[in-house]
């Protein structure tokens, strides 16, 4: 059965958005219907903007301060670019919905700047959000699910509140693997019933990874300098690495989870996705603060400036471990030229490299069984409670969601065996807590043994594309990780190196990633082929 979506759900997607845009620079306050009176600038109309498609947030902020263009012009131009690349040409399908208030907000921020008021370093800078991050505005928050389109959000996520307070412009919501990959085994990464299939801008038929696929693709394609994803089990790190951008999974608890559609209370975290390491640090400056509604943030270290340690010589005196052997399925080191080049760049930067046996991070078949069981129980434990809290939601139980997907199978046609398996199990809180505690404690022991035993400042993951998933000990430990572009493989897909560190070492890990980034210059813009 096919579903006819309400008009509001389609108002600002793809071609529909482009058809509503006017050519007048004298934009009036926007109507609820969308951007019908907005301005969109083409590359030919504003060369200053077209030359800054891949600029960092800092570079854009400097240009805004110098009055080279306005936030209204910037947002207009980026929307035009995003619609062109999402709905025409390569059809990347990265943005699931644009913010109908974006241009009005940009205009207000321009007026504030003109009056001498600048809210913070992100004043007038566009940011994209994954579709599972709450915004209490005209946009939807649906985790890629059509079932959640009509469900209301009554309050911004805490991290969204922080962005708005600092003057950031929420440009829109990005596509994602539906329900953050907690729906069915074997679903295509970057696919959702609401948003369709997101494509890799470097190789259109290549892997995008997930679940924060749209957030990574949008930044890689120059839709915005900043985006936020969420990571439960590699959902920021993997898409960032596969789309050639920087992704960070902070220490769990560094960023508030309040107002994010949950997958796991123990593993979930928001994370920045940017082109440059420094921009990820800027986002942490805004977002890494105490949220009284998320007790995990009570332990956040007081760090006023995450950019302070970002220096060209940041690698000097650092000890970094790298895998002495690779996971099954990986090539040997000499068949990974980008990884070898990354090691050379680290050495040139002054780091001491130590080969480390990652055997303790390997998963046995028993571990796979335990993890699968935990994730099934997590869905049963977390999702029904969340569904019941969304006003206007047509689904309030797992069975409701399963029935909805089957009813509207034309759009939601992929399998949902994870949902069905979770719905069928008899939940046992004691078993859940025991299994969760076991995996966390084992992961922390393994990571601490590797890091402290070799006196490492950071550990490099396996160069295999899914190493960020295979080093699951860091994920279950709740420890931070940063992935940085390292080049391109023979198939035209980006490669990356991923740095893992101890708990609360986020600032130090960013410094190491920055030192590598500056010494490698491996970032490449996509050619959309």
CATH first level of the domain at 8-296: Alpha Beta
Output the radius of gyration: 22 Å
Q: What is the residue-mean pLDDT, rounded to a whole number?
A: 90
Computed structural class: alpha/beta
Q: Uncertain runs with pLDDT below 50, 5 residues or more?
A: 4-12, 14-39
Query: So, CATH architecture of the domain at 8-296?
Result: Alpha-Beta Complex
CATH topology of the domain at 8-296: Amidase signature (AS) enzymes
- Supply the CATH superfamily name of the domain at 8-296: Amidase signature (AS) domain
Number of strands: 13
The CA-CA distance between the termini, in Å, is 34 Å
Shape: globular
Biggest pleated sheet: 11 strands, mixed
Q: Treating each run of at least 4 consecutive H or I residues as one helix, how many helices?
A: 18
Q: Helix share of residues?
A: 25-40%
Strand arrangement in the largest pleated sheet: 1-3-2-6-8-7-12-13-11-9-10
Beta-strand content:
5-15%
Quick summary:
By secondary structure, this protein is α/β, with parallel strands linked by helices. It has helices spanning 7-10, 14-20, 47-50, 57-65, 71-87, 102-114, 158-165, 213-220, 237-242, 277-287, 337-348, 365-389, 398-407, 417-424, 429-453, 467-470, 472-477, 506-520; strands at residues 95-98, 126-130, 169-174, 191-192, 196-197, 226-231, 246-249, 269-274, 319-323, 352-356, 458-460, 481-488, 494-500. The strands form two sheets. It has an eleven-stranded mixed β-sheet with strand order 1-3-2-6-8-7-12-13-11-9-10, with helices on both faces. Strands 4-5 form a two-stranded antiparallel sheet.
